């Protein structure tokens, strides 16, 4: 017994990881233990640990989860159309992953801090980010788009997995602040969620962040949306064991949850955040879901996967199973679903209207953000640029646009 | 009324051009926001473009099949709506119906590539004109053409930095010398943006200048004739149908001479070489053919066959009620014959596999994924019919029809082209007697089906006209020896001569 891995509460399950992964590669379905409460048939099951968390969801909250998922899906469709119409340079669709994003986002508290990838539009919605603002980056008029301090929702990170390091660093910062404030602080305890995908799980950054998080017991929840495709690379090339099992190697709990089951995702995330806030250390959540659409609008998945695979996952759609449940339990009626639909269309119209009006940034902003204080070299370069920009005929165009045309 | 133009967007990252594959609307159609306008093919994929405007289609500015640069206007839509509002607007009742009962589990989840959902059209005409203008042309080429003119006055100051002003667009010597003049006449410079003619533009022009009745205009459009080029002989000076016919006859005669192809006589030969980049399907075909031709020693054999009974059989099938509405051709009988003959000579339905350790093995396939070489809009493709051995004659006919329809539409999926075990190439469809086909990589045999035509044939010592075809076959000699290939081809020929043997 000299070299036993750090024990976790999930240790000792008599499951052969390798056989599991092989079976999954063949069956396309998880054989690993997966937390699922609401099945594709709309029937609510039970779980010894997580049912208690699910029971806390009121009918109002359940309707809210549905409305959020429907809204973000409608937004996704509109943003894709805007890209096809030349209004956005690129769009990263999320369809299929609504439950994983809305469920986890709604489980977070205002004081928590979220580090997203570039696909977490659903989480953005739960953090009250203005969705039209979110399009700034995709329209190419901003490097960010919103003020993360207002929402505790960090800017999208385009460098795969880099945000996991930021998240752990931030979580370690929270730890130190709490220590400094002592036990008498009135501030509610905060935790951090780091989002990433199955593709990013292969990056070294994720490994480093998990090592640090574990060693320092940082209050961070690693939320991996396993959507089965890293652009064109399938999950079975990323890993031979269920991704959630990797947590064992670092010495903290890993849970696979049905990522298309918003109730289970909400319950598991709430539990994990509690775990982190109470100083018990990090948790890895693997939300088992599927990217129904393309990786981005510049991608064509028909080139590398079959439509019957997509159809199989459509049958597990997160929205339709919650709708079945709400209707079966008489928690929502036709009027509710009609209103959700109408609200979605209104949101889409708002986003379309606002996206057109997003202003091009002033080039002076770029100069202003180089140093915190005035700097002679920057001032000189700005002066040169202004002279250059003024040399163009046609007064209606601004210096900023001149800069853009030069790229 | 405002006329909005939709410029071709960059639908991928950094694409510079796309081809209009097909229009889904025509002038006069009412469209709502996000209604599909057309299908375009880029270097990355085929996608549908949703309308950014609500209104009435006024003009299609680019013809189908034409490749255009990102930023080119493709359609104009006027914002007054004539006729019925499109059905896309009327979607609310759909929600009132209980969605649980819908056949499709999730009607709202649609792929976000390829086909776009027509979801949630917002009919807001006032929104249709984007304030900042569409963000088209993130590709380098598209931006490069839009150079802004410089002011003349500060020229002295700016000319010091001149090299930095235009780093992108290479310019000819003549343009450089004209540069000062260009600065003085900015309007002229702006007009150079894109002067390539499009069909839509020429038609608009014609409406004002050339008289012709609508049917004549349609014929001209179908034939690709510019009415302005036609000598009008009508009593009121209009172009008549006869004028078009004679113009077309003359144009055909000119095309026959094809002197345009050779170029001007005095032009140096090195300027008369047309360079076509090898990419896409062409590249894949070339690679596969080289691989096959140099890895597998080909042996080709031919046999003439009296296919008269096959022709009769096909005729009877066509008129039978069972095959009503199904396209039946001699290819169907050949396909069946090939499957039948392969079972009797299994080595032709095999693969040569080189193992990593230097050894090799022959894998005989106890199933038939029958490949059919098909000329498609995207080039030569060889989709195959999986487990063709299990199909009845009717099922096989349907499978062949599906395969051809899919291929012709350019929608053949990669999976449909993988795992083939034996291929037929129907060169007869092009009127060719026979040829030496190259084996599809991964297989060891390919059958070429020549044209079937009446020829003199000796039967019982008498020369009589019969329906004759030539079968050609190429075989990988590593796997299939001469006698085996001969037996296989003889078996196939036997079925074409007497399809009743299939009942055996």
Short description:
Chain A has 407 residues and is of the alpha/beta class. Helix content of chain A is 49%, strand content 8%.
Helix and strand layout, with pairings?
The complex is a heterodimer of chains A (407) and B (504).
Chain A: H1 17-27, H2 51-55, H3 59-84, H4 98-107, E1 113-115, H5 121-126, H6 131-139, H7 148-151, H8 162-181, E2 192-197, H9 204-215, E3 220-226, E4 229-230, E5 233-234, H10 235-238, H11 246-250, E6 254-258, H12 262-277, E7 283-288, H13 307-314, H14 318-328, H15 334-357, H16 363-368, H17 376-390, H18 399-406
Parallel strand pairs in A: 1-2, 2-3, 3-7, 6-7
Antiparallel strand pairs in A: 4-5
Chain B: E1 3-7, E2 17-23, E3 30-31, E4 36-41, E5 46-50, E6 55-60, E7 67-69, E8 73-78, H1 92-96, H2 140-144, H3 155-159, H4 162-165, H5 173-177, H6 179-184, H7 186-191, H8 199-209, H9 214-223, H10 241-257, H11 259-262, H12 280-295, E9 298-306, H13 308-319, H14 330-344, E10 350-354, E11 360-364, E12 370-376, E13 379-381, E14 384-385, H15 393-408, E15 422-425, E16 445-449, E17 453-459, E18 462-476, H16 482-497
Parallel strand pairs in B: 12-15, 15-16
Antiparallel strand pairs in B: 1-8, 2-4, 2-7, 3-6, 4-5, 6-8, 9-18, 10-11, 12-13, 12-14, 16-18, 17-18
Helix pairs in contact in B: 14-15, 14-16
